[in-house]
Specification:
mainly alpha; 258 residues; 3% strand; 2 strands; two-stranded antiparallel sheet
C-alpha cells in the first residue's frame, strides 16, 4: 500500500494545497473528534448555525472542490430527509399546519432543523479533516494515537481491498449477464443473488489466504512499520488552539443565547 500525494502532503505539504492539508494527521483526527462531540452536545439553533458556518469555514480553508463536496453532503441529506420530514408530525406540541389530517408541531419542526444542522456541521467537518487523509496516513495516525493495532490493521485492509471486492462483484455480475440473467421478482433471481453473494465470500476468503501468504513471504510479523514520523509544528498548535477556542465559544453561545 503506497502513499499517494495526499499522504505525503499530510504534514509539511505544499502551501497551495490549502491550510488544512499540511496539518499533522493526528491533530486533524483529534480535532474532528472533539469538534463532532461538541457539536452533537449543542441544542440551540443559533449555536448550531454558527457551528455549520465554522464547518463551511474549514471547507474554505481546505480548498476542496466546492461542488463535489456539497454534492456528497446532499447525498447524506437525502438519506435523512424522510426522517426529518416525518419528525414534525410525530412530536406532540403546538400545531403549525395540518396535512391530510396530521398536525405538524413547532417542537417537531425545531427538532428536525436541529438534527439537520448537527448532521451537516459534523459530517462536513469530518469530510474536511479526516476524509481527505490517505488510508495509509490515517492508519499510521491512529496507530500513533494508541488505537488497538488489530483495529488499525482491520481498517487499513478494509480500505485497501474493498475496491478489489467491488471489482470481483462487477466481474461476476458481467458473467451473469453474458449468460442471459435478467433480475426479476422471482425465486430464480433471489437464488441467483444468493449464489452471487456466496461466490463473493468464497473468493474473498481465497484472496485473503493468498494475501496472507504473500505478506508472510515478505517478512510481515503483524506489526505496523511506519515509513516516517509525525511531528507537531507551530501550525498544528495554532490550529488546535483555534479549534478549542471555537468549541468553547459555541458552548458560551449555547448558554447565553439558547
Amino acid at each position: 500500500m503506497s502513499q499517494g500525494p495526499e499522504g505525503l502532503a499530510g504534514h509539511g505539504g505544499p502551501s497551495g494545497a490549502g491550510w488544512i492539508v499540511p496539518l499533522d494527521p493526528r491533530v486533524r483526527i483529534l480535532g474532528a473528534c472533539v469538534y463532532g462531540i461538541a457539536v452533537a452536545a449543542l441544542s440551540g439553533l443559533v449555536a448550531l448555525s454558527v457551528a455549520l458556518a465554522l464547518s463551511l469555514g474549514l471547507l474554505a480553508l481546505s480548498r476542496l472542490p466546492l461542488r463535489p463536496t456539497l454534492r456528497r453532503m446532499a447525498m447524506m441529506d437525502g438519506f435523512i430527509f424522510f426522517m426529518l420530514a416525518l419528525l414534525p408530525f410525530t412530536v406532540p406540541g403546538d400545531p403549525v399546519f395540518t396535512l391530510w389530517g396530521f398536525a405538524a408541531s413547532w417542537q417537531g419542526l425545531g427538532q428536525a432543523v436541529e438534527i439537520a444542522l448537527t448532521a451537516n456541521a459534523v459530517i462536513l467537518a469530518l469530510m474536511v479533516l479526516v476524509g481527505t487523509l490517505e488510508p495509509v496516513t490515517l492508519g499510521h495516525a491512529l496507530y500513533r494515537l494508541r488505537c488497538p493495532e488489530r483495529l488499525v490493521h482491520l481498517l487499513m485492509f478494509t480500505l485497501r481491498y474493498i475496491e478489489v471486492l467491488r471489482e470481483e462483484y462487477l466481474r461476476l455480475r458481467a458473467a451473469m449477464k453474458l449468460r442471459g440473467f435478467r433480475p426479476g421478482s422471482n425465486w430464480h433471481s433471489y437464488r441467483s443473488f444468493g449464489y452471487l453473494l456466496g461466490m463473493i465470500l468464497v473468493r474473498a476468503i481465497e484472496r485473503s489466504e493468498r494475501i496472507l501468504e504473500a505478506m508472510k513471504c515478505r517478512g510481515f510479523s503483524g506489526r505496523i512499520v511506519l515509513l516516517r514520523e509525525f511531528a507537531l509544528s507551530r501550525r498544528d498548535w495554532v490550529f488546535g488552539a483555534a479549534l478549542l477556542g471555537a468549541v468553547a465559544g459555541l458552548f458560551v453561545l449555547e448558554r447565553t443565547w439558547p
